Every structure is written in structure tokens, then in C-alpha cells.
């Protein structure tokens, strides 16, 4: 799955949870007030459920931007193939 395909899969989830108009590479926790700690947990939980993965707490703290999240997810899913 390419990064672009992952964005297509993750964007609707992020848009719904964060209540933002778009989820792209410009979105991160510091510039998106809606992406607070509670929504961060909800977003990661929804992604874990969708892709059947588990994100460790140590990794969760680092996944603070759309790019980081998608790069991490891409690496995890690539390893599962």
C-alpha cells in the first residue's frame, strides 16, 4: 500500500475524529487545536482497529503529525505483508 493509498484510508477516520476539513501532510498536533490528547488516543485506537495493529505508547508519543503517522503506519503494514 502506498502513502497515497494510506492517506485515502486514514483521512476519513481522522476527519471524523478530529472534526477538521482535510487531513493531509500539513496537519499536525501543534497547528491543529482539534488534535488534542484525547482525540489523539481516539485516532490511534481507530487506526489500530482498522488495520489490525497495535501502536505502543512509546510510538504514540512520536506520532504527532499526519506525515509521521502515515510513515509509521506504512512501515508497520509493509512488515506485515
Q: In which range does the helix fraction lie?
A: 55-70%
Structural category is mainly alpha
Distance between the termini: 10 Å
Strand content: under 5%
β-strand number: 0
The unreliable regions are none
Summed over residues and divided by their number, the pLDDT gives a mean of 95
How is the biggest beta sheet arranged? none
Q: How would you sum up the global shape?
A: globular
Query: If you compute it from the alpha carbons, what radius of gyration comes out, rounded to the nearest whole angstrom?
Result: 12 Å
Q: In sequence order, what are the helices and strands, one letter per element?
A: HHHH
Q: What is the number of helical segments per DSSP (H or I, 4+ residues)? A: 4
Provide the descriptors you would attach to this structure in a database record:
single chain; 81 residues; mainly alpha; 62% helix
How would you describe what is shown here?
With 81 residues, this protein is mostly helical. The protein is globular, with a radius of gyration of 12 Å.
Annotate the secondary structure layout:
Layout (H helix, E strand, L loop, with lengths): L2 H16 L18 H15 L5 H4 L5 H15 L1
Helix pairs in contact: 1-2, 1-4
What's a quick, concise take on this entry?
The chain is an all-alpha fold. Helices cover 62% and strands 0% of the residues.
Amino acid at each position: 500500500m502506498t502513502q497515497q493509498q494510506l492517506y485515502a484510508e486514514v483521512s476519513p477516520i481522522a476527519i471524523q475524529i478530529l472534526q477538521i476539513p482535510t487531513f493531509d501532510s500539513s496537519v499536525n498536533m501543534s497547528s491543529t487545536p482539534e488534535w488534542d490528547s484525547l482525540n489523539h488516543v481516539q485516532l490511534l485506537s481507530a487506526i489500530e482497529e482498522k488495520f489490525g495493529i497495535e501502536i505502543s505508547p512509546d510510538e504514540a508519543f512520536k506520532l504527532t503529525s499526519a506525515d509521521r503517522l502515515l510513515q509509521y503506519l506504512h512501515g508497520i503494514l509493509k512488515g506485515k505483508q
